[in-house]
Amino acid sequence: MARRMAVLGLTILLTAACSSPKRGDTGPRGPSSGRSALPALSQRFADGGRCPLDTAPVLPSSSGCVTSVTADLDGNGRLDRFVVFGHLVNGDPVSWWAEGLLAGASRRTPPFKLPVGLAVGGSATVYPRVAGAAEANGERGAEVFVQLSADLYHSGARPIEAIFDVRGGQVVPVRAGGNLFTFPTDGISQFGDGARCETVAGQAAFALAHVEILPNGWEWSIRLYRWKGLALVPDGARSGRLPAISISDPRVSRFYQLICGDLRLSTVTASYPLP
User: Fold this and answer.
1) Assign residue 14 a region: left if phi > 0, alpha if psi is -120 to 50, beta otherwise?
2) Rounded to two decimals, what is the model's pTM?
3) Is residue 271 part of a domain?
């Protein structure tokens, strides 16, 4: 019997503890959030085509395909905004940038040029966007998860993510072994990848998870990293097995997700046939 390759889509579902923000505007809402003091930078756009122009005065001219998230980036207890945007020429994005817009005295970070497309193992037709923010490394200030691109195959896509922080008034990427730390999420019916913020022996850790279906059930593995400032250091691995249960079962679907604090990024929303 031929195997059915049920492909998961690229749509991301964001679920927070007290809100249901739309993608690209994932900050807190409500009168106590300080949202009115920050520019609301969010656009809807399709991958691979021209970008809508954003004329917000806080952004460089010719900016478009803008996404952002509100969070306390620098750990001072005030809400800031992390923004990802394209620099446009005749409506087409020719480069991609990230900035931190910091609360108070109109402070902002210098723009940080993002590696995208083939440079991160993805496709140039999939545009970067902010995925969300959460406190990941155990230090004051939130880390920001950014989808830099996606790996396209079988008419589907796996997002390629990276993590950024704001330190000393600069956007700083999380690295491992001196290189930009990137990781895939999502997958297809036969395998999936995800990531989790964990606590191990009282210390913040980050785990990359993988699961795949075999004839006798699912086999999973986790690679653990410990935080050293804004660097991730390998810190062991573990593995195990699950019975041949549905991909939508939480014991399996969590291996397809990015989970960090209240942040949940997932595309596993239905039952998919096993091979």
Assistant:
1) beta
2) 0.83
3) no
